[in-house]
């Protein structure tokens, strides 16, 4: 699980929750044996507790990659449609970790929303109605695919109340 990030914007106060994707190093007598995980892509599936099938699946958004919006003179934002609809890829080197967006919640709103680059199609609050999750607990399956790698981890996404601090991720298996 990654850290939460609270952010204040002119159109509201938001919380973002993340998972951390890591590539632990493997050393053997001072030699680095672990290769970078190249061209990593992520798929997130959101589902109801007790249901085997997910509600919906989205491509993941790597926090480390640029947002698909460019500011132009005059304070106007131009959407990079190619970046919005592409499947973002990331490289995770040995002994490194990157964050992957999972969900967003705005203060004063009961629903939270799944989160990726397509959220920019729903300004100003980045809330795709098809990805709304009401106040409840859900499972989120995170699938990472890269060259010679495929990993899946499942987390609980807890959405309570109408304040941003009601959004959090929890492990499915206590550690």
Structural description of this entry:
- There is one protein chain.
- This protein has 175 residues and is mostly beta strands.
- The chain has one domain.
- It is built from one helix and 15 strands.
- The protein has one helix spanning 81-85; strands at 5-9, 12-23, 27-28, 31-32, 37-48, 56-59, 69-72, 76-79, 90-92, 96-106, 112-114, 132-133, 136-146, 149-159, 167-171.
- The strands form four sheets. Strands 5, 6, 9, 13, 14 and 15 form a six-stranded antiparallel beta sheet that branches. Strands 1-2-10-11-12 form a five-stranded antiparallel beta sheet, with no helix packed on it. Strands 3-4 form a two-stranded antiparallel sheet.
- Strand 3 and strand 4 (31-32) form a beta hairpin.
- The longest helix has 5 residues, at 81-85.
- It is globular.
Structure annotation, total helices: 1
**What's the shape?**
globular
Number of domains: 1
Order of helices and strands: EEEEEEEEHEEEEEEE
Fraction in beta strands: over 45%
Q: Summarize the amount of helix as a percent range.
A: under 10%
Q: What structural category do the secondary elements indicate? A: mainly beta
Rg computed from alpha carbons, rounded to a whole number of angstroms: 17 Å
Low-pLDDT segments: none
Number of strands: 15
Q: Report the biggest beta sheet as strand number plus sense, adding barrel if it closes.
A: 6 strands, antiparallel
Question: Overall mean pLDDT score?
Answer: 89
Calculate the terminal CA-CA distance, rounded to whole Å.
12 Å
